[in-house]
Amino acid sequence: MAEPIVVADGLSKTYGTGELATPALQEVSFEIAPGEFVAIVGRSGSGKSTLLNLLGLLDTPTSGQLRLDGRDGAATTPAARARMRNELLGFVFQYHHLLPEFSVLENVLMPSLIAGRTGDASIRTRAAETLEVLGLGGLGGKRANDLSGGQKQRVAIGRALMNRPPIILADEPTGNLDTENTEAVYDLFRTINREWNTTFLIVTHDQDIASMTDRIIELRDGHLVQDVRDPHAAPAGRPGA
């Protein structure tokens, strides 16, 4: 059996101190196996964003441990955490946050540019192949601002995939999309999950999307209250198909 790619062991996060201390996450524990397709759900204020920030190495827990692909996610320097983020994690947000002055290809290449690897011809080939997988072949030279909303989100997904990270963290990735583009993004996630064995953790308010994942982790008031594998998860492909 494969070792878990994500291990959260008693993760807690408190903001402030003394009388002003506010617990945002309390003793949350779970393990995620490589290739799992997981939804993280809960009402506003439940701790979802805090958990995502901890999993994404954007914040550190007040207590507890986090391991990503066998590596300690807390006991590292800021520089080491940044390297781990670039090597292990891809991020997809509700808003695509593309750089409008750059082309589609340049936006997808951004993680490699940050890593100083764009001089390698194979990297540009990978970027072009990624655009093809996302149905954006031939649009690499376009400016990001010239794309539709759904196309922009697919470019953001391509950017997250550029370094082929084993884990994708998605924060309300369909929250700003219409039904057709929501279905397209779900299809893409499932294809990537199936073909590349990429692990997905998707924070979402969309119950339809959550119900089509393979596992649902629910938070309430900073506590993990449910962790179930969904026997009714839709197979890979278009939701409802």
Topology at a glance:
Elements: E1 6-15, E2 22-32, E3 37-41, H1 48-55, E4 63-68, E5 71-72, H2 78-88, E6 89-93, H3 104-114, H4 121-133, H5 149-161, E7 167-171, H6 179-196, E8 199-203, H7 207-211, E9 215-220, E10 223-229
Can you describe what's shown?
- The protein is α/β, with parallel strands linked by helices and 241 residues long.
- It has a domain at 6-98 and 165-229: Rossmann fold (3-Layer(aba) Sandwich), CATH 3.40.50.300.
- It is 33% helix and 26% strand.
- The protein has 7 helices and 10 strands.
- The strands form 2 sheets. A 6-stranded mixed sheet has the order 6-7-8-3-9-10, with helices on both faces. Strands 2-1-4-5 form a 4-stranded antiparallel sheet, covered by helices on one side.
- Strand 7, helix 6 and strand 8 form a beta-alpha-beta unit.
- The two termini are 31 Å apart.
- The model is unreliable at 233-241 (pLDDT under 50).
Q: Brief overview, please?
A:
With 241 residues, the protein is of the alpha/beta class. It is 33% helix and 26% strand.
List keywords for this structure.
241 residues, alpha/beta, Rossmann fold, six-stranded mixed β-sheet, four-stranded antiparallel β-sheet, 7 helices, 26% strand, globular, disordered C terminus
Query: What is the average per-residue confidence, as pLDDT, rounded to a whole number?
Result: 85
Order of helical and strand elements = EEEHEEHEHHHEHEHEE
What is the CATH top level name of the domain at 6-98 and 165-229? Alpha Beta
Number of helices: 7
Distance between the termini: 31 Å
The gyration radius over C-alpha positions equals: 18 Å
Q: Can you tell me the CATH topology of the domain at 6-98 and 165-229?
A: Rossmann fold
